[in-house]
């Protein structure tokens, strides 16, 4: 049984103009009113103002809310689920991923057959078996290069901003956007774990 896609209309039955419908559809993509207005065909020069005005119109607000509820039903993804995933990133603790400080490394044996142990100040990645699921969700990439491991984390600040928006903490602006109305640049945290370059003693 196929489910028909509902038309983008306000709950009160008031129909939107074709351009307003397009705005709602585009806004649902990235929740950026300025970019949604541009993609919907409004003037780029006034897109920021138009986008802000559209979000204040009751019929458009109702259409956006209805579309979001329909999408949530289709995907079975709830706001609570989204917040929980954002919380894993926003409240992640780097100490659950890496260790740092002085440690002793055993290098190659010397000419007399004795082990050469030297102090090393650096980072050490915690074994993946010791990393809990919530912390693992905050990691976006682990790569191994010539100099060692590189670990990238999802944008912690961005996740906290999104959580705040979901909880209604930021009411001073209708939307959060980057330069020229674009999306906020993501700023992932990068941790480089470089192998120590310590030569053995003679």
Automatic annotation (TrEMBL):
GO biological process: chromosome organization
Membrane-spanning intervals of the chain: none
Keyword Hydrolase appears in the UniProt entry: no
Alphabetic keyword roster: Viral genome packaging, Viral release from host cell
Top-level taxon in the UniProt lineage: Bacteria
PANTHER family assigned: TERMINASE SMALL SUBUNIT, TERMINASE SMALL SUBUNIT-RELATED
Protein's name in the database: Terminase small subunit
